[in-house]
Amino acid sequence: MADDALKAVKSADRVLTLFELLGRWGREMSHSQIAEALDIPKSSLTQLLRNLVAREWLRFSPLTKGYSLGPAIEALARRAMQARDLVQLAQPILATLTATVGESSALNLLKGDMAEVAATVLGPQRLVSHMRLGDVAPLYATSGGKVILAFLPREMQEDYLSRVVFEPSTPRTLRDPAALRRQLATIRRRRTGHSIEEWTPGIVGIAQPVLTRAGSVLGAINVAMPRLRYDKAGEVRIIEALARATAALSERVEGAPPA
């Protein structure tokens, strides 16, 4: 068991070192050049390169017999840049949203099995909900987290639901996978999620997804407020403002709002 774990770590280390090498090199490298640079036996390297090419982490040119970083690496880099751009583009939209509804707002992004506050604007009221940058919460407990979860690809959503352990933080925190599934279906249908004192006592959250044109979820924008200021008339106004905010952010990221 220990030997298997050691081999797995060694293989992962080789892959990362290979990516770093090709990134620094800046052009194609041959099988022999890689083997020499990394001090890897050619027989071991052959299978590693074959696997990485098959999964598009590397490119192989039959003409030059050279290897370079592949489209999967490029896609990963684009996603990292997109997340950074998303935060920058969201800030003025959140400011407008908060000014419109008079409550704190935030951009939430997926981070593992959690929702992370990536950008936020504090409301003008004396009694406000504080959403601090970097705060994380379980996907099942917050409005933004539930919205992200609802719009994840089905395979990712099912993987999460099959292993999630519910840890109540308030008496209203969801504890039942079936109840969560019902909420997720409603969120997908209405494109709006709620958390009523499920993460923080006395706080209500309402969120909507930020989607690509293809319908992939980039994140969620939420508004949070003390429950004493939560009413149906205000909820309608917030949902309308959230729809404008999420559409505006999608448009800025992709050039057009999702259908």
TrEMBL record:
SMART domains: HTH_ICLR. GO terms for molecular function: DNA binding; DNA-binding transcription factor activity. Keywords: DNA-binding, Transcription, Transcription regulation. Residues 72-255 form the IclR-ED domain. GO terms for biological process: negative regulation of DNA-templated transcription. It comes from the Bacteria. This is Transcriptional regulator, IclR family.
